[in-house]
Design goal:
This protein has helices at about 5-60, 65-80, 85-110, 110-115, 120-155, 155-165, 180. By secondary structure, the chain is mainly α.
């Protein structure tokens, strides 16, 4: 074998490696977008369940208007956030909505008739199921984004990613209010 053949083989290997690396980045970005879409589907389901839940609780606890207003405002804010908003913005709004829902459920604890209402129990179960699906979707999204971000920041992937304009994506995190989001809501009558 002469040096031209060896050089061509080395160049072919490098070109194939670049193609493979580029396709890996494309695949990771598309998987992250798909995972984000899964989160959006679960959030839409959550938004659809909330008005029914609020109306059910309203019938039993009409004097708890601030809890209903907070849930309604938080839901409206979450739904009005543009689709292109980043994961951190979406997470912050969703955390506010989760806090408002915790307050609503805490209010429901004071009404035994409401806790026995089949419609309320079904809505509460569906919302709990949806919250579990949101958490699972969020974990899946964060795993893919972490894999993508690691590939973008690691050598030699960082050379390929910067050459083709791949950028790290935001994780879907609780953010600054993480500790307060973990705390149970205290409602006093």
């Amino acid at each position: 074998m002469n040096t031209i053949t060896i050089t061509l083989i080395i160049l072919a290997v490098i070109v194939l490696w670049i193609i493979f690396a580029y396709n890996r980045f494309v695949s990771l970005v598309n998987r992250a977008k798909e995972a984000w879409a899964d989160i959006a589907v679960q959030l839409k389901r959550r938004y659809d369940l909330i008005p029914n839940l609020v109306e059910t609780v309203k019938g039993y606890a009409s004097h708890e208007s601030s809890a209903f207003e907070n849930v309604t405002k938080a839901r409206a804010a979450a739904m009005s956030l543009p689709a292109q908003a980043g994961a951190s913005s979406k997470a912050q709004i969703e955390n506010q909505l989760s806090g408002a829902l915790k307050t609503l459920f805490a209010v429901s604890e004071a009404y035994p008739d409401l806790k026995a209402n089949q419609n309320f129990l079904q809505l509460q179960k569906e919302l709990g199921d949806t919250e579990d699906k949101i958490q699972a979707s969020r974990r899946f999204y964060n795993t893919i984004v972490m894999t993508l971000n690691t590939a973008i920041q690691s050598f030699p992937g960082n050379v390929i990613s910067s050459s083709f304009g791949f950028k790290p994506m935001d994780l879907f995190e609780l953010g600054a209010d993480e500790q307060s989001a973990k705390q149970p809501i205290q409602v006093k009558f």
